Amino acid sequence: GPADPVLASHRLRAGYGAAPVLDDLALSVRPGETVALLGANGAGKSTAMRALSGLLRPVQGSIVLADRAIAGLPAHAIARLGLALVPEGRQVFPELTVVENIRLGARSRRGRIDPAEVEALLDRFPRLRERAQSRAGLLSGGEQQMLAIARGLMARPRILLLDEPSLGLAPAMINTLYAVVADLRDQGITILIVDQMAALALTVADRGYVLEQGRVVTEGSAAELQADKGLEAAYLGAA
Ligand code: ATP
């Protein structure tokens, strides 16, 4: 139904070798929510994003995307079902132009590309419009991050996963980027966001989960997590 989560995991276990990185991970994101996944270095945040998006095959557990069981499906199938991952480190195609990169975002839905949709994205990201015909490799790090998000939106996803969008960016660019994320949230886009800068992620999130060694140890509203003195000492202050 309409109140069902867009994305939920249950008892999710995943990792890279014998020892699982994620153990028993349970989380959910409801329609229109922005949810933050927080935790120290190595807690398993990126691993969770990779497992949810099918880049890493779960060892155990379930993942439901819009009422469909997706654990074990390949990443391209999960993308087609409506999950768009903007991975850590951006990963735009440097030799292609900005517009070509954006158009590639439509591939997962195999749809015809509506020029008006590309235009609307360029309206949303004025810095990208200025550089529409530039090779993506010539953009600044922040512009490449915006391009990666624009490409993800071109898929018209049910949910957008943002992995460490602020990584390596200058403070002014981080503010610009988070204004974009807040804007997407305000327009009702469903978002799961990981950021090393937990306090920053909580400024745009409705709720959050704190991971420790691959498990959820705390969850709550953004306001509750912001007010949690223990968390502040452990994760929020250091950023
Ligand atoms: P960070 O912000 O430092 O990336 P994180 O919470 O995202 O932290 P992960 O990147 O998910 O953490 O890493 C969790 C654990 O999995 C770490 O111990 C890490 O060394 C290990 N790990 C991550 N990627 C791989 C990989 N490709 N192969 C083996 N181990 C990995």
From TrEMBL:
ABC transporter domain sequence ranges: 6-238
Locations listed in the record: Cell membrane
Family per similarity comment: Belongs to the ABC transporter superfamily.
Protein's UniProt name: ABC transporter
